[in-house]
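Dear colleagues,

As part of the handover before I leave the project, I'm documenting each prediction I ran so the next person doesn't have to rerun anything. This entry is a single chain, and its sequence is reproduced below.
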Amino acid sequence: MTEQSINGIIQRIARLQDKTGLFPSVRSNAMIGYRRADTNVFFTAITVFTLQHLRAGVSAETQALIDQIQLRAVQAYPIFRNKDGLNTYNFWPTRPSRHFPNGYVFHRFEHFRIPDDIDDTAMVYLTSSPSREQQLWLKTKLSQHANGSQPQRVRNTYAEYRQLRAYSTWFGKHMGVDFDACALSNMLYCIFQYDLPRNQHDTDSLIYLRSVVESGRYVTEPFRCAPHYARTSLFIYHLARLLAAFDIPELTAIRPQLRDDAYRELTKTNNRIEQIIMATSLMRLGETAPTISLDGIEQDISRFHFFIAGLLTAYEQPLLRRFADRSIVQMRWQCEAHSWALVAEHVSLMMNDE
């Protein structure tokens, strides 16, 4: 693994960025024969976020390419900004709303129009240059939609967590409160990155993350702990990234468990992108990770998805929620550029470890 190979991967990623500044992605459900091109800000922002952290280890030419990728992405962000002009961001374009773009059915129903969320907002903030005023505004906005701050309270979690004043995934007033461990990890990364003032919502969000690991629930029931990611490997990836970036005493105790579970998850999957994110997580936790061959990795990329959307997740009716974790009522999202960014991230860490 050489600097030349990582530069080549980033050049490949740059070629995938379209004229709007976005990276193409696809949503699909193989069980019902559904596959559509998707227009969202999420994959573009997380790809840029990943590339930003590789910048120091690549050639000057590739650094300039990463900067160009970021600049073009940031120019696309406004179409995903809150429909009323607030400084939160939606997964899909908002003005006009384009939920489930390029589809034939779901975009016709208001139920599937989602509010702005902490995941997209965190990644946009982390890959742009928000003013201090905007950062502090976001912190206040988060508190206004945290569990216990609205009449609705979280219901899609375990009874012992329902009193936690953790951040909800959603900013919408009429959307049920939702705890997702990976989304929480991303927003906490943003809060720590910008050194925003801490409060009970931050404390309780960290309590939630620590508890679902210590209890083992993120292994036995990942959908209930992170319904928009729903895989233990992705939980480990997000938490390891957060722990590698910041000193967070509340999470120190779970490092050994994350390490052990990462080794186990590494042996459970045959998909090399999944193996790569576990190897990356292990290195971030200070462990030795195996070398993973990149020969023919394109086949693994074509089968890898990074997150899901449950068509019944938003419902709080118990009978409907019983079926929310079934594959037939879930969409899977894939993005070739982001998968290559995960590969580049792994190559970079391996080079630094040599």
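The chain has a mean pLDDT of 91. The beta strands are 25-29, 34-38, 307-310, 330-334.

All the best with the project,
I.
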